[in-house]
Amino acid sequence: MKSSNPIFSRRGFDRPAGAGSAGDHLVNPYAGVGGSSLLKESPTVRLTTMTMDDVIVRTAATLGTVVLTAALSWVLLPVDQDALGRSYGIAVTAAVTAFVLSLVQTFKRTPSPALILGYAAFEGVFLGVISDTTSTYVAPGVIVQAVLGTFAVFAGVLIAYRMRWIRVTRRFFGFVLASATGFLLLTAVDLLLSALGAGNGLGLDSGGLGVVFGVAGVLLGACFLALDFKQVEDAIAYGAPREESWLAAFGLTATLVWIYLEALRVLTILRDDI
């Protein structure tokens, strides 16, 4: 079963179709690369294969870069009402740069810490400017709520996954993939209609429909997290090379950014309607 996260699926964080049910034969995609924890471990193998500690440390470094650059952009690039166009221009440029870096890393054969941290830095600039603008002119105080909400979703999904309340199966994967496809198509149509001058597009950024769409985005992000946890768990079990932990950090960071933006959308709409 391949991950819905392209960062993971490009790097072999997957299982063969049908894996996961009783009696399935697990095929180790890392056999002969760095050893496998499915086999008897040796001290050498433990030093060269990916562990949960590696994932935690690199995820902390990647998220820390996002938070640091977001804070710096908030302080050093204050939003001026007379130059909102410039602020949005900086945000869009940072977002596009982050997207390009993520694509380059996705199609690379090996993880690149420089690319991943560069992605995190530009993503942080984008989030910092957007968050500053939202907090200053749209919904003061909503940023703290969005951050707390994001980490609440992360903690909730992690607990549910560890307790096996969420079971990642082929059916679950298919549901998430279909939902993500529909979500992205609706977003694209909404943006296209807005660009063509059709008012508020499909109305996904305001009113009750906007709230429902944003909540759906948060739930979809939570499903991505469950898939990401599964792929990390499998990679560790397979004995993935230690460098793959950078890819795990990359994927988890991208998912958390998604959840934060959707949470920010919902909270902003709710604040506007009060």
How would you describe this structure to a colleague?
The chain is built from nine helices and no strands. The longest helix has 32 residues, at 207-238. Helix content is 70%, strand content 0%. Helix 3 packs across helix 5. The termini are far apart. The protein has helices at residues 6-9, 43-48, 52-76, 84-106, 113-138, 142-162, 170-195, 207-238, 244-273. The chain has 274 residues and is mostly helical.
Overall mean confidence score, pLDDT: 81
Encode the helix/strand succession as letters: HHHHHHHHH
Low-confidence stretches: 10-26, 34-45
What would you call the shape?
globular
Major sheet characteristics: none
Terminus-to-terminus distance = 44 Å
The number of helical elements comes to 9
Structural class: mainly alpha
Helix fraction bin: over 70%
Roughly what fraction of the amino acids lie in strands? under 5%
Number of DSSP-assigned strands = 0
Rounded to an integer in angstroms, the radius of gyration calculated over CA atoms is 20 Å
